[in-house]
Amino acid sequence: MTDPPTDALPVTGAWLPGDPPGRRRFFTFASDRRFAVEGGRTLSDVTIAYETWGELDETASNAILICHAWTGDSHAAGRADRGHLAPGWWDGMIGPGLAIDTNRWFVVCCNVLGGCQGSTGPASPHPVDGKPYGSRFPVVTIRDMVRAQARLMPHLGIDSWHTVIGGSMGGMQVLEWGITYPRRVRGIMPIAACMQATAQQIAWGAIGRRAIRLDPRWRGGDYYDADPGDGPWEGLEIARQVAQVTFRSDNVFTDRFGRELADRSSFGDTYELWQRFEVERYLEYHGIKLVRRFDANSYLLIGKAMDLHDVARNRGSLTAAMRRITVPSLAIGISSDMLYPSYQQRQIDEILTHVGTPSHYHEIDSPHGHDAFLINLDQLAEPIAAFLDRAEPS
Amino acid sequence: MTDPPTDALPVTGAWLPGDPPGRRRFFTFASDRRFAVEGGRTLSDVTIAYETWGELDETASNAILICHAWTGDSHAAGRADRGHLAPGWWDGMIGPGLAIDTNRWFVVCCNVLGGCQGSTGPASPHPVDGKPYGSRFPVVTIRDMVRAQARLMPHLGIDSWHTVIGGSMGGMQVLEWGITYPRRVRGIMPIAACMQATAQQIAWGAIGRRAIRLDPRWRGGDYYDADPGDGPWEGLEIARQVAQVTFRSDNVFTDRFGRELADRSSFGDTYELWQRFEVERYLEYHGIKLVRRFDANSYLLIGKAMDLHDVARNRGSLTAAMRRITVPSLAIGISSDMLYPSYQQRQIDEILTHVGTPSHYHEIDSPHGHDAFLINLDQLAEPIAAFLDRAEPS
User: Structure pTM?
Assistant: First the structure.
């Protein structure tokens, strides 16, 4: 692990029109009618970038929607290439013969509204002046993300998803899919997610946002005309570091880094304030890695969407909201998750069971913390495959 | 809870010579000889600010040393006054008839070396030019803090402490007292502390430091000549917010804040990026509160000292280090502590028991997280009083 150079950082790691598309495809809607977001503003010419794997069958009954997490995108499976800096975030899960078997299923993954990998977001050109939205982009919610994804269904010829699956923020979308579109979903699988963001989750997100705002290169969100290397990378890097610690666990950090020094040579006889332990170098490495492929404004907006996540909002109560979910559910928790502790997935199962929805809970026994949903595919594959294999009413 | 104004913030919240001393007294040493810190540099004219409660008895056998945590200071007990913005951080613990009964004990608490409440630290005038040390202040370690405190003993006429007590970073000092000065200590009580900072603890500290460094008003540590309101308060505030979340717990945040909105009126129909939930307002409030009474450079230095905390350093092994502790020990853990989890205090007890030192472990059952050592005096009073009441060999 060599420290990446910071002088070659892009102003934004967003994918922009004109960049190599990779596997992405695009669907644009609301060119005639404006798309009203929940927070009270509107968007026009909304593009959703998506990828698909496998073939839709003749009755369009084998479609599965995968929902990505905070810094994920449509590239759930496949190699890194010119269009995608990183390999698919669930590459070992989706493919021929894998748990989500693309010989059997037609798999779709969309970049979320407000994202930065092809879907309309703050780095996208504003339809009126062609300049990046920047600070003009509205706050969006998980519900807005799901409503935008739903526009894609007729375009793909899909009436209902066999299953909607996602971890973390993906799991928030899964719940909103089941509640908002009970007749367009036949099964849901929320992983390491919650029904409402807790105060602690909001706190972590808010601290990261404050770090980005503190970066003078963020410039209120209108930084896209900056010189290369002069974007708000340091704020974004710090925000990512906060998240990265909450994504893992004390045990794994101890096992992996302990008290190893990164700047070993300089630690000899004198101590200096900015000498780093190995864990600091790891966090910086991951922060810079994100800066290369993500946009600070998208990070802010998607984080805010997670804070606003509350399936009960304007629906009376949690129970009233969850009662709208009538299809089978498998909630999956991770034993060592400090960010979305497993009690939150058990609550999903309990409330669904309480309202009479067929629901199960499965727990992954992993030391890896929240990120286990990206790491422990060994433990996820079986319950996911079994849930997909369930008998459907004919 | 009204949001404090930020325009009236001091450049530094450090106590400086000329400010009202409050209860503080001062002891200065190394005016002739330089005080070499562990990291390889030296300090001259080192001042330690301290406070005392009760009377030293004729045989000087009733002295107790209290060691403070990260943002604590010598004001462990007593009111807020012109010299102390906040009341004593253990005010309900130390006093006549309290668990640490000042009718019986002579209690001492020192501001740590590198601190900002009267002891020599980065905001102090450099003895050569009278200007604040700023970036010239060396990195100090927990061992340096303890060695500086030890200089006070002959000044006060104390040969050995009956007990050294402290929570969090105070507990790190307690362990170093037992290891460095086995004949000057007759009992130790480390609370919510550890023998070595873990990778996760280092990570949290490092992220806060990065936020301070990102603040352009920090100016590499040499900001003391700034105009009022133009100090690095925003970076310090964010650093404090990171710490504040780790000091508490998910449960307490949920119970206290849930998803309450702070900027309620503006949340009506539209969502904006910087609208706040109540938990965000709470974090900002605590951040600003710290800025008023603390110095950003001290925050950096003391955080680094905690990261460097490792009782095994240059002592062969943990066991070899801990074997030097020969006096009775009571380690106290907190059930909900996510920052210094209770397994770390159990480890202290286990290793001391293993090497044959009389040791016990006691756990506080509290939802309040790490800060329970400042909150649950109800549960701490009894084990502390009982430990102080132990029979000593005559």
Answer: 0.97
